[in-house]
Amino acid sequence: MQAPDLVAKLEGIAPGLSTYNNELSIRGVSSFAVGTTPLLVVDGQPSSLTLEDLNPETVETITVLKDAAATSLYGVRASNGVIVVTTKQAENDKLNVNVSLGYYLKPLPSLDYMHYASTSDIIDLERDNLLSDPEYIKSPTAYFSPMTAKSSPAYMTQVDMLYYRMAMGEITQEEVNAGLEKRASIPLLAEGRHVLWVMGYRISEFYKITENTRTILEVQVCKGEENG
Q: What pTM did the predictor assign?
């Protein structure tokens, strides 16, 4: 099965193995005070590496151990389970050239099912909250004064800015209404979809040449962009 990394290959295939916030777990969470990362054993040697550090193209087999089987082999270090990785080895009297190319796409997500409010709905909500605020009704200039203090200015939405400018006498009510109408016509959801989620792609190339029992050349090239 093709996947960008070993974690993506294993999740859903190895029984009991799951990931959350980029942290692997085999036995689940028994305490919030300690981690759940399993012990990684590469070619018989316990390693401080993670699965993300390993090249999927060099892996021959992966075995997931848990419960008594893991503890009997690796002791207390296996309390979170063990992932045993065996890498590919060169063969005697044989020249091997391995070349692989992977191209992975992360398409733009569909946001329609999330039922986000429209730009017009958001502006209406902000305007209604502002105009019903007792402090604003009492004195618009006093209401905006803490927000515009040079020592500690506060964030102001575009709705706030329009009403602030009107309170300062810079624009009229008609200009405020025109500004709100103009902003309500901007499809923020569609624009945000393209700005926040760039089409992600990843190209992974791997080259390995072995002769007899030694590796002559091993190169991996990865490039691309991630969503976000």
A: 0.42
